[in-house]
Each structure stands twice: as structure tokens, then as C-alpha cells.
Design goal:
With about 150 residues, this protein is an alpha/beta fold. The chain is about 40% helix and about 20% strand. A five-stranded mixed β-sheet has the order 2-1-3-4-5.
Length: about 150
């Protein structure tokens, strides 16, 4: 079940990314109603194309649980996951994905493509989108500043 308090925590991570001059995307993973991992984009800092907030958070959650299998977990992320992150979510067997902004160019949970409609994959996470206008303003402000 979507809980705003968890999305607020993911957005706090997005603000941290913004403050570090990274694309403001934040993520948390919840198990048994407790946050077990949090992360934000680190692509620039790490010079790593795979250092998306979701990937960083999945790695942390796996270390915390001592298992790559994250069943029973929910992932809250500020921006709709891309195909790479959606693939990692499927492979980690995360139960549900919640996001606050759609990504029409790269979103893989309904905006550009929908990973849950691909036939014969081994796991289909639930997902829920609830628009957060304040977060969307932050995202737009970041890219506007970059264009200057």
C-alpha cells in the first residue's frame, strides 16, 4: 500500500542529489513498514552510468538483508524507473514500485514502455503512480538551471 511518508523520504533523497549537482532522483526500499535502504543518483560523482538511485538502493538493501532476493519489499522512487532499473527491480523480485513523476522519455512502468506487459518474465511487480507537483518543480528547475 502506497504511503506518502515513504515517498516524502524518497524525495528527501532527491533533494540531496540536487544539492550534489546530480539529477534529483531519490529512492528508498521498505520492508515490514521500515526503511531498509535509501539512496540517490550518483552518476556524476561515481562516473558510472549504472549509479541510478534505484540501483544504488537495491544494492544497499541486498547488503542489509544479506540476500539479492528482495521479496516483501516496496521501492519508492521520485521518478519512474528506466528500463535498466525496472529490470533490476524484476530480478530482485521487489513486490511494488511507487513513483511521484512520470518519465515520458525513459519510463518503464507505463510512460514509454511497461515492463509488466512483457510476456514470460519471471516476476511482475505491482506499481503505483501518484503525482507530486513539488517534486516535479524541483526536477524541472534542475534541468532549467543546467540549460543556462
Amino acid at each position: 500500500m502506497y504511503k506518502q511518508k515513504f515517498m516524502d523520504e524518497a524525495i528527501k533523497e532527491a533533494v540531496r542529489a540536487y544539492e550534489e549537482d546530480e539529477v534529483p532522483i531519490g529512492c528508498i526500499i521498505v520492508k515490514d513498514d521500515r526503511i531498509i535502504a535509501r539512496a540517490h543518483n550518483n552518476k556524476e560523482k561515481k562516473n558510472d552510468a549504472t549509479a541510478h538511485a534505484e540501483m544504488e538502493c537495491i544494492r544497499k538493501a541486498s547488503r542489509k538483508l544479506g540476500n539479492w532476493y528482495l521479496d516483501g519489499c516496496e521501492l519508492y522512487v521520485s521518478l519512474e524507473p528506466c528500463i535498466m532499473c525496472a529490470g533490476a527491480i524484476v530480478n530482485a523480485r521487489i513486490d511494488k514500485v511507487c513513483f511521484a513523476a512520470r518519465d515520458p522519455k525513459g519510463g518503464a512502468f507505463g510512460s514509454n514502455l511497461n515492463i509488466t506487459e512483457i510476456k514470460k518474465i519471471n516476476h511482475y511487480p505491482e506499481y503505483e503512480f501518484r503525482e507530486d507537483r513539488e517534486y516535479i518543480k524541483l526536477l524541472k528547475r534542475f534541468f532549467k538551471e543546467k540549460r543556462k
